[in-house]
Design brief:
By secondary structure, the chain is of the alpha+beta class. It has 4 helices and 6 strands.
Length: about 130
């Protein structure tokens, strides 16, 4: 059974339901961080990064402002204010035939936001 990947992802973001990531991620999922040099490979590490990101990024100001999808790929642009700094970024998501996420890449701007996110994600992942 194929799942509606983008609808499930939006549900995860809206509810911060990290448990839902288990069914949404493929075992071979890869996470590309905007601050970590190497891809993070595997479901467990991808789930850890996405779970931490939900705590760092998703607040009352978080919103997706644009979504472009084709086939099994999507780019979702977001805006969020964190500690008075405007963060603009994109989530680039690819999924397999069953609808499970196989690749998740985050890109951010501006530099001030990248530095802030680096600090906050390091703290969240250390927990």
């Amino acid at each position: 059974m194929t799942i509606d990947t983008l609808a499930r992802w939006h549900h995860v973001v809206e509810t911060r339901d990290v448990q839902a990531l288990e069914a949404l991620l493929a075992d071979e999922a890869v996470f590309h961080s905007p601050v970590v040099h190497t891809p993070q490979i595997g479901k467990a590490v991808t789930r850890a990064y996405l779970s931490a990101a939900l705590g760092v990024f998703v607040n009352a100001s978080f919103r997706y402002v644009r979504e472009v999808a084709a086939g099994r790929h999507a780019v979702l642009e977001f805006m969020v204010d964190i500690d008075g700094i405007g963060v603009n970024g994109v989530d680039m998501i690819s999924w397999d035939a069953e609808g499970r996420i196989v690749d998740f890449k985050v890109m951010l701007r501006p530099l001030k936001a990248i530095n802030l996110i680096h600090q906050k994600m390091a703290a969240a992942l250390a927990k």
